Amino acid sequence: MAGSCGNDHLKVLVLKEPLPFSDEDVTFRLLSLDVCCTLASLAVGLSVFHIMQHALHCLRSWEQKHIIRILAVIPVYAWTTFFSYLFFGGAVYWELIRECYAAYATVSFFTLMCHYIAPNLHEQKNYFRSAEPKNWGWPLNWVQKLSGGEHKGWLRKPRCGVTWFNINYIGIFQYVVLRTIVTIISGVTQLFGRLCKEEHNPRYASTWTAIFDAVSILVAMYCMHQVYD
């Protein structure tokens, strides 16, 4: 189905003219591809080396598997960026893959922090069950004053540490779920020409996916800060 973006008449500009200081067959796009491929290969090589070190010396598997997932951010970002240059017409799809994996890596970082406390979820909850929950940070601690204070109201500080942990756990994991849904919706709407990332218009899907994604990231980062602080 043909796209219907407001800027469909615009074409992707690719500089095919030779660079002034080079041979006739060296264009700006070719130079940028060479630089991008070189840097991507270097980044992937270094990250794969560290990944292999963890895989070959797997002494604490419940922690190292999350470290490997975090290290995989580098090759994912490097190669999706390179393929965005190479297949610039489908750059949106590569960007969606990159953004989706970023959510996965964020959750892996949170899970890694939890595994530093205890090797499994059951023991982690036992730890937080005996811990004293801390109050919500800014700006919720300000809004608390309007809803009953720190110990009353729907924004009160949880009385049990495991409740506090569960709230933050859900707040962080919702990001990877919603990001996956947003990625699928964005890919489908891009296929039918209804994503239109260049247009800030509620008629197009990009406006709504950006709003939902921003809210999801905000909630996840807030909960991450609560746990990490």
From TrEMBL:
Name recorded for this polypeptide: Uncharacterized protein
Subcellular location(s) per record: Membrane
SMART domains: Solute_trans_a
Protein's membrane topology: Multi-pass membrane protein
Alphabetically ordered keywords of this record: Membrane, Transmembrane, Transmembrane helix
GO cellular component, one term: membrane
Principal cellular location given in the protein's record: membrane
Entry-linked InterPro entries: Ostalpha/TMEM184C (IPR005178)
Residues spanning the membrane: 26-49, 70-89, 101-118, 162-185, 205-224
Highest taxon above the source species: Eukaryota
